[in-house]
Amino acid sequence: MSATLAKGINSFKEVIDTPIASFFSSCVHCGLCAEACLFYTETGDAKYTPIHKLEPLRRVWQQEYTLFGKLGKTLGLSKPVTDAELEAWEPLVYDSCTLCGRCAMVCPVGNDLTYMIRKMREGMAASGHAPEDLVGATTRAVTIGSPMGIKWPAVLAQIKHVQNETGIEVPVEKEGAYYLVLMSSMEIINFPEYLSALSRIFKQTGVSWTLAQDAFEATNSGIQIGASDLAREIVSRIVVAAERLKVKCVISPECGHAFTALRWEGPNLIGRPFGFEVKHILEVLDELHTAGRLKTKGKDKRPLTYHDPCQIARRGGVVEQPRRLLNEVASDFREMPDAGVMNWCCGGGGGVSANSRAEPLRLQVFKHKKEQIEATGTQTLITACANCRIVMEEGLEHHHMKVEVIGLTELLAQYLVEDNTP
Amino acid sequence: MNHLDLLTFARGDALNWALILFAAGVVLRLFEIFGLGRKADLAKPRTNSPGSGWRTVFTRSLPPQGLLKREPVTYVGGYVFHLGLFATILFFAPHIEFFDDLFGISWPNLPSALVDASAVASIVALCVLLAHRITNPVKRMLSGFGDYLAWALTLLPLLTGYLAFHHLLFEYTLMLSLHLFSVELLLVLLPFTKLFHTFSVFISRWYNGDIFGRKGTAS
Amino acid sequence: MKQTDFPKVLQGTVGEGLEQRGITRREFLKFCTALTAMLALPPSMASVMAEAIAKARRQSVIWLSFQECTGCTESITRSHSPTLETLIFDLISLDYHHTLQAASAEAAELARTQAMQDNAGKYLLIVDGSIPMGNPGYSTIAGISNYDMLVETAKGAAAIVAVGTCATYGGLPKADPNPTGAVAVSDIIKDKPIINVPGCPPIPVVMTGVLAHFLTFGSIPELDDLGRPKSFYGETIHDRCYRRPFYDQGKFAQTFDDEAARMGWCLFKLGCKGPVTYNACATTKWNDGTSFPIQSGHGCIGCSEPNFWDAGPLYKALSMPVSATASMLGAAAVAGAAAGVAITWHNHSNKASAKAAHEKVTPQELLREDK
User: Fold this and answer.
1) What pairs with residue A380 in β-bridges?
2) Which of C186, C322, C328 to mutate to test the interface with B (most CBs of B within 10 A)?
3) B109 CB near a chain C CB, below 8 Å?
4) Does position C2 have pLDDT exceeding 90, yes or no?
5) Which of A26-40, B54-68, C40-54 is the least confident region?
6) H, E, C per residue of chain C
7) Dist CA C25 CA C3 (whole Å)
8) Is C308's Cβ below 8 Å from some Cβ in B?
9) Long-range contacts at C102-110 (CB < 8 A, ≥ 24 apart)
10) What pLDDT is attached to residue B195?
């Protein structure tokens, strides 16, 4: 069984709905979406114009679902979508789009281009026109359990390490716990500080939580490659575990697309609402802080700034929470230009960081984040997405910048008031 | 055919067919869009969200942060063109009479000199926007026959109206007929070109506000 | 010689007639000066015109009335005697005119045919009323159809003046559905110069001005492409209307005799066709310059234009549709909805079959075998 062009076109036909039809009908070719897109503004290459990335999908819409388009097709007057075209469009749809959503915020006629790119990827994947690296990551996510191939024993090793460090037990498979905690591969491998910070915070605030042995991975490559069938399989593991352990809420970790996959796409993928809540760790920490349960002492003296991960802020609605938390532990918190809902993408979301072909482009467009950071005059950058973290560390190195990147949970834990604090 | 007969035709049969094709075309296109449906969103929306689909229908008319500085020509040109166009169509007394006759509704008119100025502003804006479309690399890459056709369809009623009002180019009755024909052409083609955004913008903006609103970030 | 005397008065001339009536040269020159101005001729032409008219032999004029209401005759002869317009008619020899002639029956027809014979090639033919082509019996005079009489009488005419919108363009009888098959003079006569003097009816002095031109120069005045003298029909009512400032300011009467109407505001909304009507009403006016329809509070109905009766309802503003209605739009929307339902059904089944054809994506199927 193989991917075929027919399957791809079929997928295009499946995903086109009223919103997409209204978006294509309304587009007046004003080009403003390009001015919001990191990949256009930092390269000046018009082919990165977001609506242009959607051209094959638009033609399928026109030829299949409009009267004159259908007439044109019947009379042989229209240009069909071909493999060659999809091959040419692959880098546009995957390498130069992180699903960051800025274009959707600026389009004067209200087009949600991110929504459309996400749906277009269904056809790209089904026709075999997704990047090789993403295919690999998705395959590993489905067959092994995580895109980087991590299995439970590796996680267990990290857990033991964290328990030794903190002296706190990390609960596993605790039925009836309030929260099910998920992690991203990035955290497991690169940022174990997250888990130790979480342990300490939850111990101090008296939160009941647990990990699940068969559902520790939060990320969803299926979302990024755009194969809902696979995304469904991946997200189902979490749902099954959450229901098995009868938790009230599942916490999505410091990862952008994991939050999108679980919080917004999850119920739609499995075809029913969740019986539990889904929250980003920042939301949970903010709630604990507002309730007075999370206490900190002292403030970080370094001037620091915050990068809003796209899927958490603009596409997730978690904008004020990190700021409230940061103001507790930072004495010199400086907002970068365009901070908040219109912040600029790190350049590596939506599968771009896993795509080695896209690396040169990604490093090139990091220029904008560099300028944003330089405008603040800080050398400490806080964020709440492990993928942003890694991407920015690589970008900073490439652009020879001496800026440290820290996760927000980790920073909070540094100033946590714990019972054994003098 | 003498000029008055041509005008009677333009006001009569030609207008009737144009209006019929326009109404039928708009309704057809709306069915084409709505008929596809949208799957219900099973994810729980945020409850404290200040935005919504309906709000974005209006707020999306404002430039978002940073964009006005990046693309002043598109925004300023767009505003001047649209506002000038609406002022010309909706506040010129003879036009209000048209709507009154057809729909039984009317409203106060502006002095003709003001409407004249709006039409001129609109025409100038259209010319500036065309120049921009041809010279700006993004717009040039995106633009095709449909864009230039839409530009001409929009310019002609404004231009012929201006020429008729000022008794320029052709004899008045003939110029008036040309004005009506240009409007009729626009009506017939509007539903099947990007000019349909006249109607679909409300739909697309609504969905944008709805989708972002569920997440708490509608704008 | 007294200033008031004519240089030399000849027998059987117009000058003789004027002298007999006691019209002074000054009075006559004043009249010619006014006429010269109205014809848009240089002031120096006034004395030339006076000389020429005085010397002119009384012109033979045959007036044929076809499918008409006699309004044109009423207008032209609506004399406020003594006026100089009336005198001009004494200066021509009106050899045949249904309303004004004393003779009737065979005697009348004899007068016509005699005049045609005596003045062959030189008489002026004036026509009012349209000519029915549907059936010759619709309008006859002494058993002769209008068509036959026109063709016969036109043969020896020097020129033809079609008076009134019926004769110039078909007028009221030609209005939809045109039961008599009415046509204009110019639709039948193709080989004689025709001056169209439209109006329903035309303004009296427009008529006399055209005649004076012919008497003076023996030629046709400059005509527009509808055959009308440019000096009287060169401008639209709108462009010479005294209420124009109100139009420009956007001040309109909404209904007859409302406050705005009483203040003399523009009558565009009440259906005034001034912008598309070429005539001299706004400058020359009616009843010796007393008033014209707009001044009296009624919009222009466009009566000097071809087919004005069929150019949309009289009380619908020019910018209103002639016949479109909201229910027409409603019906069109319903038709669009029907087409929309059909296309939705098609789109639905298209999408459904795409969904049915969906093959579940597995990791293996993310790759192309043929790559």
Assistant:
1) A304, A404
2) C322
3) yes
4) no
5) C40-54
6) CCCCCCCCCCCCEHHHHHHHHCCCHHHHHHHHHHHHHHCCCCCCHHHHHHHHHHHCECEEEEEEECECCCHHHHHHHCCCCCCHHHHHHHCEEEEECCCCCCCCHHHHHHHHHHHHHHCCCCEEEEEECEEECCCHHHCEECCEEHHHHHHHHHCCEEEEEEEHHHHHHCHHHHCCCCCCCEECHHHHCCCCCEEEECCCCCCHHHHHHHHHHHHHHCCCCCECCCCCEHHHHCCEHHHHCCCHHHHHHCCECCCCCCHHHHCCCECHHHCCCHHHCECCCCCCCECCCCECCCCCCCCCCCCCCCCHHHCCCCCCCCCCCCCCCHHHHHHHHHHHHHHHHHHHHHHHHHHHHHHHCCCCCCHHHHCCCCC
7) 7
8) yes
9) C105/C142, C106/C142, C108/C142, C109/C141, C109/C142
10) 98
User: How far is it, in rounded angstroms, from Cα B209 to Cα A326?
Assistant: 29
Interface of A with C (CB under 8 A): 1-4, 7, 10-11, 13-14, 16, 64-65, 67, 70, 125-128, 130, 135, 138-139, 142-143, 225, 227-230
Residues of B in contact with C310 (CB under 8 A): 8
Handedness of CA C141, C146, C151, C153 (dihedral sign): positive
Nearest residue to B2 (alpha-carbon basis) of C274, C278, C127 = C278
pLDDT digits (tens, 9 = 90+) for A333-376: 999 999 999 999 999 999 999 999 999 999 999 999 999 999 99
C-beta atoms of C367 and A16 within 8 A: no
Nearest CA distance, A341 vs chain B (angstrom): 7
Whether A52 and B56 lie within 8 Å, measured CB to CB: no
pLDDT at A244 over 60: yes
| Residue range A106-129: mean pLDDT, rounded | 96
Which range (B197-211, C214-228, C235-249) has the least confidence?
C214-228
pLDDT value for C81? 40
Q: Confirm or reject contact between B192 and chain A (CB < 8 A).
A: yes
How many residues does the structure list for chain B?
219
Give the model confidence (pLDDT) of B90-132 as tens digits: 999 999 999 999 999 999 999 889 999 999 999 999 999 999 9
C-beta separation of C26 from C4 below 8 A: yes
Contact C66, C98 (CB under 8 A): no
Residue A98 CB burial class (10 angstroms; 0-12, 13-18, ≥19): buried
Q: Closest partner residue to C276 among B94, B97, B176, by Cβ?
A: B176
B159-197 pLDDT, tens digit per residue, is: 999 999 999 999 999 999 999 999 999 999 999 999 999
Residue C86 confidence (pLDDT) above 80: no
Instruction: Measure the CA angle with vertex A289, ends A286 and A294; round to 5°.
Output: 125
Tokens representing B182? 């240009």
Residues of B in contact with C275 (CB under 8 A): 172-173, 176
Query: Pick the residue with more confidence: B35 or C87?
Result: B35
Question: What is the arithmetic mean of pLDDT over C233-248?
Answer: 95
User: Of C159, C169, C92, nearest to C129 (Cα)?
Assistant: C169
Q: Which chains touch C (3 or more CB pairs under 8 A)?
A: A, B
B1 and C CB contact within 8 Å: no
Q: Do A111 and B204 touch (CB under 8 A)?
A: yes
Q: What is the pLDDT of residue C10?
A: 53
Mean pLDDT for A272-279 is 96
Cα A40 from Cα A55, distance rounded (Å): 17
The rounded distance, in Å, linking the Cα atoms of C145 and A318 is 94
**pLDDT-based confidence at residue C6 (cuts at 50, 70, 90):** very low
- Taking the Cβ of residue B47 and every Cβ of chain A, the question of whether any pair is shorter than 8 Å is answered with no
Q: Which of B29, B42, B210, B214 to mutate to test the interface with A (most CBs of A within 10 A)?
A: B42
